[in-house]
């Protein structure tokens, strides 16, 4: 991965030198970041706002495969995955802490690449890096990020507020990240068998990017604020649409009906799923890693959203006893099940 | 490690089932914890207080060795290491998030043990567990904790406030955690050569406990508040006294003089270091992991602290040009160097 690049031994810098080196270009952008990297703890000030905190752990071999994930993309995605949780609360993300464990086989340039990706995400989404921890790892690459944000108390969207009759909405399109991963896995196998063959990713840019470089939907949070819509519940689609719908219904003590023909699936996702012998609907329901926002709105808000091409209304909330159902294109009723990603499956 | 115990496969529970199972006994104790585990992000409310955030990553084979670290102690220590950073800001620690990556070889009972230790620490130090992430790991055990706390703006102690003439103080005693580790390492080697030999830890309880079960010094923060002393700078002793003194002096743009005969070293630490052929002073200066608090106070505060047996005054702050020096018992001047723990040394 770094054969032709310059290699600097991380041990030369030591832990404090490494942190300083990696974080020196990060600028503090928020008034709430009173003190960032360089003391025992960061100091933040959010007067009259509630603070939002979320954390994610990414492990090599479980959450990513360095055979096809470029390190810059990995850094970028690690941040996005975290910010997405803050947006899913209808909040403003403002700070992150980043802890990294790195194999001693990694040269400094590799860690720099990860931090370049982190920096890109921080700059694009207006985030301050305020702390972290850097260590050697005997066990492959480990990235742990905690994101911090804020919101007014009355603006925060929990998962438990969906009411009967509310409309179920989802941003963007679904299944792309999963189908993109299948393509990357296929090309990896081909490469392992014959390293001379170049990967065939033609026409797959969109879904490869959905997998490698997802974007947290801050724009959707902004749009909802502009339209003066406060969702009654919200969650981000990390494990798969079906799993997330069940979280909202379980926590709100409700049921739902969604319609297969309303699920937003990009043509590239659809065609590639078919090529690979996969059902595009199953990819959309259970694929995960799309980092779109799933939310419920009152029917009274329908007029404000109905013409937005980026938001799909895929169904509605029902009473609990009706269960969680999907009506297929051929009008068959299916029970929704969470078959999303389980990190503990062997 | 779990040969004679019940074994439950974690995959049976899945990620959400596991988180629910592990966190169900944790009670929310703080009014500032508006929403804990169970949504995309935790929601906190600290009106008119500044928020403190710190994070640490603990990796198997780097930060701990499961050959001699009981999992309950590991969970307990992982929390303490984090709280210590909040106390080092003169803050009140209130919440933590815990992310864990676990080998699929681990049964549920092993993870439960880690969480028992986390729970003990939370209960003892009045901390709310408010979120986290749980994943399988192909790479050994990974624990990442982020701690959150608060303080009034005017009470926060940074590392950069030490002034010429200020007194350098340290709580408790030093070097014990390091010497305890040497004993554990010695007994591990003996065990590997001959598993029939029982470990010989007689009389070493104190230093073994210093290594396996350190305590964040919240009591020192409380004491300083009672005595109405605000340290001019403060840091916790995680990497070693010399390294921490140099952080304070560098960030405060000052020098210092400390006295070897003032360094607080417990008799068990002293005798055991000698047994092992180690210099007790070097252990105190460079051992690390003591999690005591190192701080500077104005000379005017001397009278308030001088009779406290738990606080040692080990030297004073000088101008920058005098450098950072230790006067030995035989009146020789040594330059202080950070030889603390470097996770990147090979």
UniProtKB/TrEMBL annotation, chains A, B:
This one is known as Thiamine-monophosphate kinase
Residues annotated for Mg(2+) 2 binding in this entry: 56, 85
Domain of life assignment: Bacteria
Reaction(s) the record says it catalyses: thiamine phosphate + ATP = thiamine diphosphate + ADP
**Pfam families this protein is in?**
AIRS (PF00586)
The residues that the entry says bind substrate are: 63, 289, 341
Q: Where does Mg(2+) 4 bind?
A: 40, 54, 85
Q: Which Gene Ontology molecular function entries are recorded, alphabetically? A: thiamine-phosphate kinase activity
> In what residue span(s) does the PurM-like N-terminal domain sit?
38-150
Task: Locate the residues binding Mg(2+) 3.
Answer: 40, 85, 236
The signal peptide stretch is none
Query: Is Metal-binding found in the keyword set?
Result: yes
Q: Does the keyword Nucleotide-binding apply?
A: yes
Please give the InterPro entries that the UniProt record associates with this protein.
PurM-like_C_sf, PurM-like_N, PurM-like_N_sf, ThiL-like
State which gene encodes it: thiL
Binding residue positions for Mg(2+) 1: 55-56, 133
List the keywords (alphabetical): ATP-binding, Kinase, Magnesium, Metal-binding, Nucleotide-binding, Thiamine biosynthesis, Transferase
Name the CDD domains on file: ThiL (cd02194)
Q: Which HAMAP family match?
A: TMP_kinase
């Amino acid at each position: 991965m770094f054969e032709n690049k310059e290699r600097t031994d991380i041990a030369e810098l030591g832990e404090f030198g490494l942190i300083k080196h990696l974080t020196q270009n990060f600028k503090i952008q928020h008034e709430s970041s009173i003190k960032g990297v360089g003391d025992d703890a960061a100091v933040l000030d959010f007067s009259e706002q509630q603070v939002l905190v979320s954390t994610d752990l990414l492990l090599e071999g479980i959450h990513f495969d360095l055979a096809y994930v470029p390190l810059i993309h990995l850094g970028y995605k690690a941040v996005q995955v975290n910010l997405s949780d803050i947006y899913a609360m209808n909040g403003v993300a403002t700070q992150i802490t980043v802890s990294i464990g790195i194999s001693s086989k990694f040269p400094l340039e590799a860690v720099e690449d990860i931090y370049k990706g982190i920096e890109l995400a921080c700059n694009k989404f207006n985030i301050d890096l305020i702390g972290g921890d850097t260590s050697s790892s005997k066990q492959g690459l480990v990235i742990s990020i905690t994101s911090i944000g804020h919101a007014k108390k009355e603006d925060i969207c929990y998962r438990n507020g969906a009411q009967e009759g509310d409309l179920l909405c989802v941003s963007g399109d679904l299944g792309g990240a999963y189908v993109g991963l299948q393509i990357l896995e296929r090309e990896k196998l081909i490469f392992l068998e014959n390293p001379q063959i170049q990967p065939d990713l033609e026409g797959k840019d969109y879904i490869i990017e959905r997998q490698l470089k997802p974007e947290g939907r801050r724009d959707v949070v902004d749009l909802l604020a502009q339209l003066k819509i406060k969702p009654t519940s919200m969650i981000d689609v990390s494990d798969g649409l079906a799993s997330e719908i069940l979280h909202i219904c379980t926590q709100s003590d409700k049921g739902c009906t969604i319609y297969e023909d309303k699920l937003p699936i990009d043509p590239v996702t659809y065609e590639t799923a078919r090529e690979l012998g996969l059902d595009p609907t199953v990819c959309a329901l259970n694929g995960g890693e799309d980092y779109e926002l799933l939310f419920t709105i009152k029917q009274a808000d329908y007029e404000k959203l109905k013409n937005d091409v980026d938001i799909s209304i895929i169904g509605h909330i029902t009473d609990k006893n009706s269960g969680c159902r999907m009506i297929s294109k051929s009008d068959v009723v299916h029970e929704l099940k969470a078959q999303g990603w389980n990190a503990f499956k062997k």
